[in-house]
Amino acid sequence: MTLTHPYAASAPDRTAVGVRATARILAAARGGTTALPVLDGDGPFELRRLRSHGLQARVCIVGAMTAPLGGDRLRIEATAQHGAALHITSAAATLALRGPTPEHATYDVHLTVGEHAQLHWLPKPLICAADSDLRQTCTIDLAPTARLVLREEQVLGRTGEPPGHVTTRLTVRCEERTLLDQQAAYGPGEPGWDGPAVLAGNRAAGQLLVVDPAFEESSPEVRLFGGAPEGGQAVLTPLAGPAVLVSAVAPDGLHLRHLLGAAQNASHRPATSSNAL
To answer: 3-class DSSP state for residue 60?
Structure first.
């Protein structure tokens, strides 16, 4: 079936430099549930519907080819319209590899959440293999009554290999007001990335961001997670808006996931959003 919706995409542009691909997801509230009028995979992104959970539509991103490689230009756009509930995950970790050219790869994510809508962006980790070079961005636009749960995890290098290079930027806007804008860079060529002010010898970094209007009335206090530094540590901090941010570093992906999970479970849950976390 051919999509005629304006979100429909053409076949990926394969060039000598790399793959150009954009996948699109659109969730809409219809008849007391959430429909997916647009589910358009492209290039390395195969999009699969999962069984709905209550009113929430669920989508899994499956890798159809090895990506991102050097020179690739990849993008995912997901929108939860007014009153919709959308959960997005991935089937496996994303592995960034060195490509056939010295060009860096880009992986851009753009999320839009409408009034009284909610979106959970919970992919598996990003692994930056040796000699890879990736520039990743995540840009989020929220309506004032929107809710968001976002988790990001970066692992530098596979077991027993040196790390690749990655720069990440997360920008969150609520009603055109910037709620969060942060950038990090890890790997060879970045000054001090492995020093005590950044990763301090760790090889995994991640964060959990929860945005909920209920935090305007009640927000959790600053809290630390983790014991000895060699096992990784995390901190939960309220933001200057209806949000909390958990930032964590750990020696590997497994310790990182445990830290983020502990912080998530221990976070205060607003009474109006008991399922936000």
So the answer is: strand
The 8-class DSSP code of residue 69 comes to B
Q: Which residues pair with 53 in a beta bridge?
A: 56
* Integer Cα distance of 61 and 58 in angstroms: 10
Helix (H) or strand (E) holding 40: strand 33-40
Neighbours of 161 (CB within 10 A): 11
pTM of the model: 0.88
Helix segments in the chain, DSSP class H: 253-266
List C-alpha distances in Å: 170 to 109, 158, 265.
10, 24, 23
User: Domains of the chain: which residue ranges?
Assistant: 17-199
CB of 152 closer than 8 Å to CB of 168: yes
Per residue in 86-118, pLDDT (tens digit) is 999 999 999 999 988 889 999 999 999 999 999
Could you say which DSSP state residue 91 is in? S
Residue 162 to residue 180: CA distance in whole angstroms:
31
Q: Would you give the DSSP letter of residue 273?
A: G
Determine how β-strand 19-30 pairs with β-strand 13-14. Answer: antiparallel
Whether 225 and 263 have beta carbons less than 8 Å apart is answered as yes
